[in-house]
Specification:
There is one protein chain. By secondary structure, this protein is mostly beta strands. 6% of the residues lie in helices and 60% in strands. It is globular, with a radius of gyration of 25 Å. The two termini are 27 Å apart.
Length: 465
């Protein structure tokens, strides 16, 4: 275990002596041990502990399987609640809300049914499996105020540290205005610019390593039939000119009709919270949708949506110009108390995707459930067309007090002028539940038509309550 693991665990052990005791005496503490053996090689071990005020996990990976394996700590995280309304975190930490949008400010358009940005009503931080484990964070909440802060312990790293303050002004009547205001103050070390020998033409001045400030402000509004958000982000520093980005979206619902829209625009040298310059400089979109009630007895609802978007894409070379790209899509979705079915088509530049999915909640029996999905992706390359097809199915048993299980199968097919590739995979999973212990077994096998050997994995999970 490296020095970062020891430092974080010792720090948290000092801060949470009541939490360590609570794991033994809490009402429902649990310990989960996941062991996964991959074929032909690799092994993973994940241990997770949960109690009333202390949670934690550690992930160990090895390039070789048992018994001759060489374990290394790949990730770990721990969180605790020493006082009501106060949470402390250490290790690998992820955040949601404004910090997540500051990391990825460009709107993600994967479906014609767009949902506007909404206020985060839960905690900001949660532990996650990442390689960045030298973090410490605190979150304090009281009524309608929430303050969160995270610091990276590597002073020379490019990972950001920041403080977030969120104030919510709730609506006491459905027709009143609900307002949420968030302010983010972040800082990050920016690496020095590339050496001049790499190119004859420089797109910007060479700069030494420096620290930049990244403030952001976000306002979310909701009142009656409409809701919306507006976010502004900046890059400030001694050796750089101030640059920024702005994003806003909203939606209005009038009975069965909803119209959602949004836009994003950034300066050419703007960097997100992770220090990345996005390829999309500007994006504007609109997404109208209609909802119809079908079948009063079954509670059926049919929804049709359309998405239209236009992008300005950053040039890849100095002598080129920024280009324009479009996104268009449409989709149908039907759902009732027995399941749901969806069909959609999305076209992004030279790529066209058609996808469908079906979920049957009562498949011949109330305890049986069937999931089916299929997808086709057609990409127009320079001198050829690449086609990728996939289909998957999953048959599962609704979890009962003593047992749950599932069977799944997936097939993939791709073709280019070089040939045809395909692969098939299958998986089975079942869980046996006992009063104080659960046993879970997952088996996955994959075959393909290349010279690569078959691959597989076996997961054994034990949960002790």
């Amino acid at each position: 275990m490296n020095h970062s693991c020891y430092s974080a665990l010792i720090c948290l052990g000092i801060l949470f002596p009541p939490g360590l005791q609570s794991f033994l005496y809490a009402a429902e503490p649990s310990l989960s041990i996941n062991q996964t053996a991959f074929y032909p090689e690799k092994y993973e071990l994940r241990i997770t502990a949960h109690s009333a005020i202390l949670d934690g996990f550690i992930l160990v990976k090895s390039p070789e399987r048992l018994p001759g394996f060489s374990p290394e700590v790949a990730s770990f995280g721990v969180s605790g609640k020493p006082l009501p309304g106060v949470s402390l975190y250490g290790g690998s930490i992820s955040a949601q809300g404004l910090p997540a949008r500051a990391r990825s400010p460009v709107f993600s358009l994967y479906s014609p049914f767009y949902t506007p940005t909404t206020a985060n009503k839960g905690v900001v931080f949660h532990t996650s499996e990442t390689q960045n484990t030298r973090n410490a964070a605190i979150e304090v909440s009281a009524r309608n105020t929430r303050i969160a802060a995270i610091a990276n312990l590597d002073t020379d790293a490019e990972y950001p540290s920041w403080v977030l303050s969120t104030q919510t002004f709730p609506a006491f009547d459905p027709h009143d205005l609900a307002l949420t205001v968030s302010v983010l103050a972040a800082t990050r070390v920016r690496a020095s610019s590339a050496d001049a020998s790499e190119s004859w033409f420089l797109q910007e001045l060479q700069l030494p390593e420096t620290r930049i400030l990244m403030p952001a402000v976000e306002i979310l509004l909701e009142k009656g039939i409409w809701r919306g958000s507006c976010t502004g982000l900046l890059n400030l520093g001694q050796l750089i000119s101030p640059v920024g980005a702005i994003r806003a979206d909203g939606a209005v619902t009038i009975q069965k009709f909803t119209i959602a829209s949004g836009f994003y625009r950034s300066d050419y040298r703007f960097e997100d919270l992770d220090g990345t310059r996005n390829s999309v400089l500007a994006r504007i979109f609109a997404a109208p949708s209609f909802t119809f009630n079908i079948g009063q007895d079954s509670g059926g609802e049919l929804k049709w949506g359309v998405l239209l978007a236009r992008d300005t894409v950053r040039r890849e070379k100095y002598f080129e110009r920024d280009s324009e790209s479009s996104i268009a899509g449409t989709g149908l979705e039907y759902k009732n108390r027995f399941g749901r079915a969806a069909l959609q088509m999305m076209k992004k530049g030279d790529e066209t995707e058609v996808a469908s999915s079906t979920i049957i909640s009562h498949f011949f029996h109330p305890a049986l459930k069937l999931n089916l999905s299929a997808k086709t992706v057609r990409t127009q390359l320079t001198e050829e067309i690449k086609t990728e097809n996939s289909i998957s199915s999953k048959f599962s048993i609704t979890p009962t007090r003593w047992f749950s299980g599932s069977l799944a199968a997936t097939g993939k097919h791709s073709s280019t002028h070089e040939g045809v590739d395909y692969s098939v995979s299958g998986a089975c999973s079942f869980t046996i539940k006992k009063p104080r212990m659960d046993w879970n077994l997952d088996l996955k096998i994959a075959l393909q038509n290349t010279e690569a050997p078959p691959t597989g994995s076996l997961l054994l999970k034990v949960l002790v309550r």
